[in-house]
Write a structure and sequence with these properties.
single chain
């Protein structure tokens, strides 16, 4: 059997290595960072003031089990009715995300109305007494 020249073996090994060394993290081009998340309290206050929290479900299309990121954290009060999120959210492009608010001063249920993402009021889905804000973002950061 004839031996291959060393240069051919090196090229074959380099090609095999490149094929196996694919990305393991999602490509940055498939995600966008939200510039602003804001909640405006438009309902009357019916209970003692409490902390206002943003809760979210953000799909992770690259997760092989189809899991989403689920979490929440406190919003910062700008005034008596406006609350903003100081943490960046990186969301997948053209995937439906869910944001909702826990504001016990106005409702014992989740509030999905009056949430603005990148300056756009997001649509609302009702589920019994609960509300969920839904949105998608295109690659330019436009919310729809």
């Amino acid at each position: 059997m004839r031996a291959r020249p060393p240069s051919v073996v090196v090229v074959l090994l380099a090609l095999a290595g490149a094929a196996c060394d694919g990305p393991t993290q999602p490509s940055a081009s498939h995600r966008v960072t939200l510039s602003l998340v804001r909640y405006v309290r438009t309902r009357p206050v019916v209970a003692p003031a409490a902390a206002v929290s943003l809760l979210y479900t953000i799909p992770d299309p690259e997760d092989y089990l189809g899991r989403s990121q689920i979490g929440g954290h406190l919003l910062r009060a700008v005034d008596d009715v406006t609350f903003v999120d100081d943490l960046p959210h990186v969301v997948p492009i053209d995937q439906e995300c869910t944001f909702y608010i826990e504001d016990l001063a106005v409702s014992p249920y989740h509030v999905g109305t009056d949430i603005y993402v990148n300056g756009t009021l997001i649509r609302v889905r009702l589920a019994g007494n609960y509300e969920f804000g839904l949105f998608k973002v295109d690659r330019n950061g436009r919310v729809y």
